[in-house]
């Protein structure tokens, strides 16, 4: 199989723009836990092995437990996640699977009841950014399978 394009080499300005979003997200009030949960869950949904591997390792370094990572794809069926974390995960799934209906009114209302508008905007940008990275990694076969 032919090796796929390396966007960071071919279009470095595009990669730099993606890292601009990462740099912005590093300045936000988003908790490390929320960031890690978003990155891992979106990557699971998108089937991005490269990102799942990277972000689970990162989450473990940030203090996340193996148990919670193992349970992440069944977060609704466990009490391992807080109410706020479940809202973040629900937002992540609905925005990642936007073709199904997008961010529902019910989930948005839960977010408004738990977070301020700035935090909600930051959550949405985090979800959008990891989905962008997932699409780059999967379409270019980064890391695993490359």
What does this structure look like?
- By secondary structure, this protein is mainly alpha-helical.
- It has one domain: AhpD-like (Up-down Bundle).
- The protein contains 8 helices and no strands.
- The mean pLDDT is 94.
Keywords:
mainly alpha; single chain; globular; AhpD-like; 69% helix; 8 helices; 146 residues
Question: Gist?
Answer:
Helices cover 69% and strands 0% of the residues.
Q: Can you lay out the helices and strands and say which pair or pack?
A:
Elements: H1 7-10, H2 12-26, H3 32-46, H4 49-61, H5 66-71, H6 83-96, H7 105-114, H8 117-140
Helix pairs in contact: 2-8, 3-4, 3-6, 3-8, 6-7, 6-8
- Counted by DSSP, the helix tally is 8
Described by strand count, sense and barrel closure, the largest sheet is: none
Low-confidence stretches: none
CATH superfamily, by name, is AhpD-like
The percent of residues in helical segments reads 55-70%
Would you tell me the overall average pLDDT? Answer: 94
According to DSSP, the number of beta strands is: 0
CATH class category name: Mainly Alpha
CATH topology heading? AhpD-like
Radius of gyration: 15 Å
For the record, the count of structural domains works out to 1
